[in-house]
Amino acid sequence: MDYAKDNSGAVTAAPKQKTKAAAQKHSRVPDGLAAQERHRRGTFRPPNVSPCGAAAYGFLKTRFLPHYAGQAIAGSSEKEDFYRSFKLLCEHYNVNPVDTTGFAYPYGREVALHEAARLLNEKYSQHVGLELLEHNGSFIVEATETCYTGNTLFYIPVLPLHYMIKDKKHRKGARLLLCVFSYLFHTVHIPYYTEDSFLYWQYEMVSEWVQNDPDDWKQKDYYDYVSQLRAAQQYGETMLRRIWNTVHFDHFVEWLEAFTPCDDLDRQCQSIAQKFYSLWQDYPETSIYKHADTSCLPDFENDDYDDYECITMEKYIGFVACTDGWLYENVQQSVNANFNESVSKQEPVLKRFFDGQPQDNDTLDFECRLFPLLNELCYLLNNYDYDTKRPSIPT
Predict the structure, then answer these.
(1) Which phi and psi angles does 2 have, rounded to 5°?
(2) Which segments carry the region annotation Disordered (predicted)?
(3) 24: three-class secondary structure by DSSP
(4) Which of 264, 230, 228 shows the shortest CA–CA distance to 384?
(5) How far apart are CA 232 and CA 237, in angstroms?
(6) What is the pLDDT of residues 119-174, one digit of tens each?
(7) pLDDT above 60 for 275
(8) Helix (H) or strand (E) holding 351
(9) Predicted TM-score (pTM) of this structure
(10) Could you count the other beta carbons within 10 Å of the beta carbon of residue 33?
(11) What is the separation, in whole angstroms, between the first and last Cα of the chain?
(12) What is the DSSP string of 348-373?
């Protein structure tokens, strides 16, 4: 095939096309037909029927009894011992769980313990755990009541109260809180940060860290930190002398009855003081250590004994200078570093064995009322605006 050898690059003009014949005109739609309306929809509608809800919703709302795959026990008195002890537990706590005596054993035992624990935890503020124990060839039910404190640090600041006392408008309300402080210190035995305690050593460690290496800090920061440490020490000792004075303890009810609030802060002080006074009247000599769990403590006779293994109650309950500012941030960091090395935490615990012996009237009601009140007291003091600069003393 022969190709063109010359290509000028010019675009050749397209050949002209012949004009087609003109399109035939169509007549328009008559006006009568265009004005006609379409057929309207009928009034009949299908019934409002919707499909049923998702099957998973009903499944999630269903409560299933526990399943126990253990073998039935034959030729043993465990079943009789369990239901005898379980009946004593139900009578003591006044609960009526589902009857499982007709179920196969030990499946019936697991169902009974599960249902009883559910009813107890719905009825009481403390957590109640149930367990079957073997003792001297017989079986008994053990109930363990625990007052959970969570991860809260119950640190009560004293410097806000120190400045509230100086406020003439709220001096009488502050006096009521000082009575509460005296009760918590003398009767409840809450440790104070300027005395020999866990918190004392945390403050001491921060103080040594700052004052032993003054060249490691900027001059302005160093003077500010030392000033905060001195304020915490001096004002803390002043407040401790006030708390030590038993006059606040002796006139608690007298000042409470004569108090007339003038604003919201006074009413809050009055309300908290009334609650603590009621707690004191119901438990006049009870301290935070009455039901402290001792099973979590390390063996002191062991050569590998380490005090950091357990977070004891005096480590997360106590009086502190304040709960904000540079000083408290470093104290809190030191406390958290200490707690990170621990493997257990001490909390109020009460155990009962239903072996036929009479049960005492001891409860964890004191602890279950105390910890929410401590939270309420700390909230009031932490949000008190004493309208001054951060407590400090010139260096």
Answers:
(1) -95, 130
(2) 1-47
(3) coil
(4) 264
(5) 8
(6) 999 999 999 999 999 978 889 999 999 999 999 999 999 999 999 999 999 999 99
(7) yes
(8) strand 349-354
(9) 0.78
(10) 7
(11) 108
(12) BEEEEEESSSPP----SHHHHHHHHH
Answer whether residue 367 shows pLDDT above 90. yes
Kindly report, residue by residue over 171-183, the tens digit of the pLDDT: 999 999 999 999 9
Residue holding tokens 């700390």?
378
Please calculate the CA angle 229-235-237 and round it to the nearest 5 degrees.
Answer: 100
Q: What is the 3-state secondary structure (H, E, C) of 130-168?
A: EEEEEECCEEEEEEEEECCCCCCCEEEECHHHHHHHHCH
Burial class (CB in 10 A: 0-12, 13-18, 19+), 130: middle
Find tokens 């004392």 and name the residue: 200
- What is the per-residue pLDDT for 210? 87
> Residue 18 CB: number of other CB atoms within 10 A?
6
The dihedrals phi and psi of 293, each to the nearest 5 degrees, come to -70, 125
Give CA angle at 142 (141, 148), nearest 5°.
Answer: 145
Token pair 């004075």 is found at: 245
Q: H/E element holding 319?
A: strand 317-320
User: Angle CA(338)–CA(344)–CA(348) in degrees, nearest 5?
Assistant: 110
Rounded distance, CA 83 to CA 134, Å?
A: 14
- Residue 200: alpha-carbon gap to chain centroid: 25
The CB-based long-range contact list for 125-128 (8 Å cut-off, 24+ gap) reads 125/368, 126/350, 126/364, 126/367, 126/368, 128/93
Counting Cα atoms < 13 Å in the Cβ hemisphere of 31 gives 0
Q: 89 is written with which tokens? A: 């537990």
